[in-house]
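Hi C.,

You asked whether I'd gotten around to modeling the 93-residue construct. I have! Everything is below, sequence then structure, no commentary in between.
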Amino acid sequence: MIYNTEMIENLSLLDSYRKLKDDWDGNDAPGFCDKTALIKFCKEVVINLGYQQPNIYPTSRGSIQLEYEKDNGEYLEFEIFEEEKNHWFSDLF
């Protein structure tokens, strides 16, 4: 597998989430220091996506959100929880 720039940046971003401690958002969000399995799983997803890299964000629910948005407003979002329950939202993607 060849890693492109966006993939490397996303993998690094996921690693940086390990530094987020409880209340990282100022609204009592749980930290990611102990979410090794979640971050590892998300890194596997990022690698498997190849060149179609999403935007990645931590959430205040202790999950990680992966999203795509096209210029025309179409939107696709995946929210990955450590408990392996996934939620997704699409707006005509």
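If it helps when you're writing up: The chain has two helices and four strands.

Thanks,
B.
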